[in-house]
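notes to self, project folder thing:

trying the whole complex as one job this time. last attempt i did each chain seperately and stitching them together was a nightmare. two parts in total, labels are on each line so i dont mix them up again. if this works i'll redo the older ones the same way
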Amino acid sequence: MTSRRQFLALACGALAAGEAAAQLDPNIQALRAAALESAIRKVTGGKPVREGKVKLELPPLVDNGNTVPLSVSVASPMTSADHVKAIHVLTEKNPQPYVVSAYLGPRAGRASIATRARIADSGRVIAIAQLSDGSFWSATVSVVVTLSACLEEGLI
Amino acid sequence: MARVVVNAPKSAKRGEVIEIKTLAGHAMETGFRRTQTGELIARDIITGLVCTYNGVEVFRAELHPAMAANPLVVFSTLATESGTLEFKWTGDNGYAATQSASITVV
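result (full assembly):
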């Protein structure tokens, strides 16, 4: 049985959380974009990223953002002279842009990984591959998410 | 205790690329969710996975809160010699799990 006092405490808590979220709203797009930019810079060390070589596969329409299957493969011979060193997956609309960073080497045999991610809102998903010659290649996919991951009270 | 599953072929030809699937049972609490009273639930995730093949590291992954619960990681490696594949997961709050799979290379 919930007493009046308990109910009021709960209601005030929920209201406060709601207000905190509302206060973040005006700049949230810019903040997310900046976070993604800085994450890309951190991954690449400021080097230019070119489109191509990387294939990022995930469903264009996501019913449930809590488990989104995705796979990344990179066109590379995977020899000790020419191989993929790392694959990074980033998202645009999550509270943090990072999803997964995988570090491979010539012993991987094939530059491909698969995993399942959480995606909070419709937006871009980016896969960046670092090659052994120091170049960076990327692929971008835009997804539509109908059920957002884990943020029942709206985006934080 | 931590439940982890690894799926790797038992035998392979030398030089063949084998696919390895790993799954760890974990809620992967993001640290962005709130309780009914508005308090943040602390982050509790698996942060890393390392795969070694006869003691040599062949694959490493850093996981973040944006990984789905029960993180699945699929990758591949070259079958070079018979031996064991060791998998090690590490995470928040001292989470650690290990699993191994043996492989025969012909």
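what i see at first glance: Strands of chain B lie at 3-7, 11-12, 17-25, 46-53, 56-63, 72-78, 83-91, 96-105.
need to look closer tmrw
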